[in-house]
Design brief:
heterodimer; A: alpha/beta; Rossmann fold; 5-stranded parallel sheet; 15 helices; about 10% strand; B: alpha/beta; 6-stranded mixed sheet; about 50% helix
């Protein structure tokens, strides 16, 4: 088992600055509109200082992707994003040879006296050149001339076998291209992976990352988030709204309301000029928060303290 | 020996050992990472060390509660304080006058002050708990007497009644909703206070016997690995908490594997793709395979001894009904009856248990288990529709009260169905002892396996297909 410092040859860039400690990360993220708690800020700071990728897992709509975006803003680095999906392969994640340009080059070179097809086949000189390499997000983050933030979004969507492709980048910050050799990082990128937990990621991947479980925020933090997103909403109404969302999350729902749905509802109430939350007055409230008909019914029954009856 | 006099490094190692003893997978690399993180952790921050250890050691939300419990034992302030030899009174701050507990509890339930909750917990433990030094206990009794002394339930109920009165009569607009929201808040605060009491007691236990010994007393397997048949009510709830994500993960895995069988070559799409490469087919395109969904038939023994397990399994299987083209479940004791619709909307095990009790009472399935009769009735009900794509799952301990085994019926079922699996909650060593007739049935099953926990069940379903 090798346990080496990652990214040989690359220097840990200005990570100390904004990432020196929990307090500075927290303040910095807040300045960019992301309200982190000490847990989140602490882990981000550690990940930056240890130079390890950070795997962020949690239910949908808790701000996983936004965290990476805000960190990129805070560090004033470009964000390079790899959106994962089922069936993604190395030509979409790492690199691909641009065969169109290679064909074109061969055709153009044929006219040249010195061109010898045998020589090209022999050592690949000419065709396997960085000129013909299409960089995909992971390679791009590594070869970037300035330090970058790499976001591997929804990593749980890729197949378990494909995950292995990411390991070299995550552990060593390098990409091996058989024709060219190892391409190592010029600068250590800050790497974020997000997962909705729809399947277990491999031990190998998890071992290489720090882990942050981003659950729904506690009521206090959620109140702050809502107040920031929808300024001008009455405090009492914000309190009640967050309490309602908290209650709903404790029920056994298919899709509990996320932070973005809380904010949606807050906006709606603000637009309607509402001063109080009343389920009897409008069925709108639950319909903004919940996305399944079964869930709306379960919630409705629970809030009225009626036993839930499945619909016939 | 107590763990109060050990070096910080050694303490972290022991802490990790305890996590591993509970079944949390921590690799060598992660142990080293934890050490590196602890070295640069901000120890002046309230939870600096906790954050550093958590993000390096815990890689799944299922392990978080184990982490928090063990962390509390090894790193709470008291565990670093040597035990006070005389009298285990908790009065770190002797100048503080004692609280009026009733008023203090009411205030905690109303405002949720964390500081006050801690004071209340300390005083309650000091006043109501008869602490006996050196006894290897988990502190459950201590917790119970402290909570009884606090009259927490009673005060919470009173708080809610007062809130209801304050909100106007039942007809007042928004009254119902607001009351419900208050209930959530008060319940959460009561839960917090309960947690604080538990924390104070644990700190006392650790001060008395050392973190290692207390951790050993409290140690239990992770919820997913716990034996379902013998789980207590509270353990069942924990198991249920991890069940929903596991259900979802299972569905994803199974669906994906089915989709991943490669289909036939799609000639048209392949030619199309070859246009970019001068009609040289560089990329072969396959047709998307149509996943075939198996049909699942479940026959579950619902008699007393295995009812919990059966209820649990049928709930889990029903929740994953989208994976199967047909799902029919049957329950039996003496007689078998179809329960597919009964379980369609049941989502948590407590509800499932109640459903089963009602169902058994209403449908008079009888008093003692009769496997032969149940198999015959099952065969009568579904025998005609079984085919190669059907999978039959039988849950039960095969304990037939010394009635003769009727393997001929199972043989008939097995001939028609694609596969027959027998899931037995008993460990294999107990099969064929006493009135267990596993031997007779085993031969007609595609496989017969022991299945006691959520993890067992998950492994089984993952392989199914």
């Amino acid at each position: 088992m090798s346990y080496s410092q990652p990214g040989r040859g690359a220097q840990a860039d200005d990570v100390a600055g904004p990432f020196a400690g929990t307090a500075s990360v927290r303040a910095g993220l807040a300045a960019h509109g992301y309200l982190a708690d000490d847990k989140i800020a602490g882990v981000v700071s550690l990940a930056a200082r240890l130079g390890k990728p950070l795997l962020v897992e949690g239910p949908a709509g808790t701000g996983k992707t936004q965290l990476a975006k805000s960190v990129a803003q805070l560090a004033a680095r470009p964000l390079i994003r790899l959106q994962c999906y089922e069936g993604i392969d190395e030509s979409k994640a790492l690199y691909e040879w641009d065969y169109r340009k290679q064909l074109l080059w061969i055709q153009a070179a044929r006219g040249d006296e010195t061109f010898s097809a045998d020589a090209v086949i022999e050592d690949g000189k000419g065709i396997f050149d960085e000129r013909f390499l299409l960089t995909r997000p992971m390679l791009e983050a590594i070869r970037s001339p300035e330090p970058a933030v790499l976001l591997v979004d929804e990593v749980d969507r890729v197949d378990a076998e494909t995950e292995a492709l990411f390991l070299e980048v995550l552990a060593e910050y390098q990409v091996s291209v058989p024709e060219l050799g190892r391409l190592t990082a010029r600068h250590l990128p800050l790497v974020f992976l997000t997962s909705n937990g729809t399947r277990d990621l491999s031990e190998a991947l998890k071992r290489r990352c720090l882990f942050l479980y981003l659950d729904y925020p506690d009521p206090q933090r959620e109140r702050e988030i809502v107040a920031q997103a929808v300024p001008g909403l009455e405090q009492a109404l914000v309190d009640r709204l967050v309490a309602l969302v908290d209650t709903l999350r404790r029920l056994n729902l298919k899709k509990p309301p996320s932070v973005s749905e809380t904010i949606d509802l807050a906006r709606t109430l603000h637009l309607l000029g509402a001063t109080d939350l009343d389920l009897t007055a409008s069925s709108l409230t639950l319909n903004v928060l919940l996305k399944y008909r079964d869930d709306v019914q379960i919630a409705d029954a629970a809030l009225a303290r009626r036993p839930w009856q499945p619909r016939p | 020996m107590t763990s109060s006099g050990i070096s910080p490094l050694e303490r972290i190692h022991r802490f990790i050992d305890e996590l591993r003893a509970r079944g949390v997978p921590v690799s060598m690399v992660e142990r080293l990472d934890a050490m590196r993180a602890a070295k640069i952790a901000e120890l002046d921050q309230a939870d600096g060390l906790r954050t550093a250890l958590r993000c390096t050691l815990i890689k799944s939300p299922d392990h978080l509660s184990a982490f928090e419990e063990v962390y509390g034992l090894y790193f709470s302030p008291a565990s670093r304080r040597p035990a006070t030899p005389a009298g285990y009174s908790v009065q770190p701050d002797a100048v503080r006058p004692p609280l009026d507990l009733e008023r203090a509890v009411t205030s905690v339930l109303r405002d949720g002050s964390a500081e006050l909750a801690r004071q209340v917990a300390e005083q309650a433990v000091g006043e109501f708990v008869q602490f006996e030094a050196g006894r290897p206990v988990a502190g459950v009794m201590y917790e119970r007497s402290a909570l009884a002394g606090l009259r927490l339930e009673e005060l919470a109920a009173r708080q809610l009644a007062e809130a209801a009165a304050g909100l106007g009569g039942p007809g007042a607009p928004g009254q119902r909703l607001r009351l419900e929201l208050q209930r959530t808040e008060v319940t959460a605060r009561a839960e917090y206070l309960r947690g604080q009491v538990r924390k104070v007691i644990r700190e006392l236990l650790v001060a008395d016997r050392g973190a290692d010994a207390v951790a050993k007393t409290l140690r239990q397997p992770l919820p997913a690995d716990r034996d379902i048949s013998t789980a207590s009510r509270e353990q069942m709830r924990e198991i249920h908490r991890v069940m929903i994500p596991i259900e979802r993960k299972l569905a994803t895995t199974v669906m994906r594997r089915r989709r991943h069988r490669t289909g036939l070559i799609d000639v048209r799409a392949t030619l199309r793709a070859s246009m970019a490469t001068g009609a040289v087919p560089m990329r072969i395109v396959h047709r998307k395979p149509r996943p075939t969904k198996p049909q699942l038939y479940v026959l579950a023994d619902m008699s007393g001894s295995v009812a919990t397990f059966a209820a649990f399994t049928v709930t889990l299987v029903s929740a994953m009904s989208q994976l199967f083209s047909r799902l029919r479940s049957f329950a039996f004791i003496t007689d078998a009856a179809e329960v597919t619709d009964v379980f369609r909307h049941v989502r948590d095990p407590e509800h499932a248990m109640a459903t089963i009790r009602d169902f058994v009472n209403a449908s008079q399935l009888g008093g003692y288990t009769d496997y032969g009769r149940a198999l015959r009735q099952f065969h009568g009900a579904v025998g005609a529709e079984l085919e190669r794509r059907s999978t039959v799952l039988i849950f039960g301990d095969a304990r037939g009260n010394y009635l003769p085994a009727e393997e001929a019926t199972l043989a008939r079922i097995s001939r028609r169905a694609g596969s027959v699996y027998w899931l037995n909650p008993e460990p294999q060593a107990q099969w064929n002892t006493g009135d267990s007739t596993m031997r007779a049935y085993e031969g007609y099953c595609t496989a017969a396996v022991t299945c006691r926990s959520l993890s067992d069940l998950r492994r089984f379903i993952e392989r199914l297909d």
